Structure formats: structure tokens, C-alpha cells
Amino acid sequence: MSVRELVVLGTASQVPTRHRNHNGYLLRWDGEGILFDPGEGTQRQMLRAGVAAHDLNRICVTHFHGDHSLGLAGVIQRINLDGVPHEITAHYPRSGRRFFDRLRYATAYRETVGITEAPVDADGTLAVTPAYTLQAHRLSHPVESYGYRLIEPDGRRMLPDRLAAHGIKGPDVGRLQREGSLGGVRLEDVSEVRRGQRFAFVMDTRLCEGVHALADGCDLLVIESTFLDEDEELAVEHGHLTAGQAARAARDAGVRHLVLTHFSQRYSDPEEFERQARVAGYEGELTVAHDLQRVPVPKRR
Questions:
Q1: Which pTM does this prediction carry?
Q2: In whole angstroms, what separates CA 263 from the centre of its chain?
Q3: Sign (positive/negative) of CA torsion 252, 215, 69, 65?
Q4: Most buried residue, 65, 68, 80, 261, by CB count within 10 Å?
Q5: Please, what's the b/e burial string for 199-211 (b: 16 or more CB within 10 A of its CB; e: otherwise)?
Q6: Could you give the percent of the chain with pLDDT greater than 90?
Q7: Predicted confidence (pLDDT) per residue in 243-263, tens digit
Q8: What is the pLDDT of residues 263-297, one digit of tens each?
Q9: What count of Cα atoms within 13 Å lies in the side-chain half-sphere of residue 192?
Q10: Residue 67 bears catalytic tag
Q11: Which of 218, 203, 174 lies closest to 261, judged by CA?
């Protein structure tokens, strides 16, 4: 059975706390797993969350600040230790290649698994698979940073009343789907477009065009909200978002489920992030993330 869910491995910004690990997020998308921003401690959080190295197919790093990348060394060595049988692709800003190389070869180990490096240096498409297209958009942070967006191809939803009107049933329904027409009846005559699901991952950034491009029409948006609104000046200075800014971006983009994360250690009440997001006008499903949480991708419309 296909599973589409976000597994939250860590939600702290800059430094871990007693209750929040450094960043780490696994997107399960049917049979694939995409690991985003593995900060320090990710390997242990994977164990606690029931995520194996074998579950990984891609690693996507937004930028090379430590809370988003220091876990790469352990994760990559675990991939090799466990003998993952398939190739894994790593995406990261090309300007940070030297950091990736240092983390990949931080200590001695036996390298047995192929990791394909596919650095990002511009907005655009990174990969096209039957299940999704993976895109990147530049963000606004003191170091080069990219957000990631996954788009499922549109499909078609069969309409039972139209099928019945044309007398099509049983195995003929599948034949019509495969061949596109049957006895003069076209597939589009008895179906409608089923919009593909969309997911986006937006970490350290000020408000910018990339935020809006990534969030547009998403079913599930994972976005940083490092600061509360009263500290907006700090957010702008350090290249981050507030809860209200993130929520307004999600509202304007028509996001169905908003996941706020990457919280500064200065705040002790996570409910305040939700309150400010609601005050900002976001009315969809809202999650203030906590470690080891599982968030399902919303069902198709």
C-alpha cells in the first residue's frame, strides 16, 4: 500500500534543546524516501522514528549551516554500513560542494554504496520520475540556500455516471484507461483531470519570490518559522521567517496543510506559533511540528 507522509526527525533551529533535535525530515512518497536537511543527531532520530537507511532514495540539503547538514556524515556512513542496495542521489547548493565532500568523507569507512551527487545552482527541475518531478528554487539567506518542491503528475478520475451512460464496466474500464479510447468513447469523455499532489520544503529564508513559488498550490508545505512576529526585525536580519510571515505565504498560496518548524530556543510555548499563524489569516490544516511526529499528506481533492 502506498504511503505519503512526513516523518519529523528534528525541529530545532541553530542548537538542539532538551525537547527538540536538530533538523531532519523524511518524506515518504509511495515507495521512495527523501531525506531533507539532516542535522546533527539525525541517524539516532531515524532509529527512534523507525526509519532505516534502506528507506532513503534522495537526500536534499537546503544549505550548509550546521543545523541542516552536520548529520550527513553519520547518515552517509550508515547507508554504507547497512549496504543499501540501491543508488542514492544527493542534492545540495553547488557552492557548498566542499562542505558536502568534507562531510561525506569526514572519517575513514568502507564506501560500498553509490551516492550520486547532483548539485543545484539555479532554479529549475532536478529530477523527473514516474511518481514526481523534483524542483528547486533559490531562497534568501546569508549563505546560498534552495527550497525543494515535489509535484506529482496529473492523472484522471473516472466518473461512474458517465461510464454507466456509455455502458462501460468491468475490465473495459481498465482497457479504456490504458488505451485512451474504446468503441468510440474517449477517456476524456468519461473522466476528469485529477490534480497531482504537491509538497514543498522551505527552510532558512527571508520572504522572497522563491518562498511563494515553492508554496504555490501545495497540499503539504513544511516551512521554517524561526521567530514570532514581535521579533520580525531579527528574522529579517538573520534571514528567517516569523510565524505570521510563513502563515500569510501559505494563505496566499492556497496551501492545504501547513507545517511550521525550525523554532528558536528563545521560545517555550509552541502554541503561540499556532496562534500567530491563525491571526495572520491561515485557515487550513495547521501543524506546529514536534520531534518524531508523523504528518500525512492530505488526501487528493
A1: 0.94
A2: 17
A3: negative
A4: 261
A5: bbbbbbbbbbebb
A6: 93
A7: 999 999 999 999 999 999 999
A8: 999 999 999 999 999 999 999 999 999 999 999 99
A9: 6
A10: yes
A11: 203
Q: What is the pLDDT of residue 15?
A: 94
pLDDT bucket at 186, cuts 50 / 70 / 90: very high
Q: Which of 30, 37, 55, 67 is catalytic?
A: 67
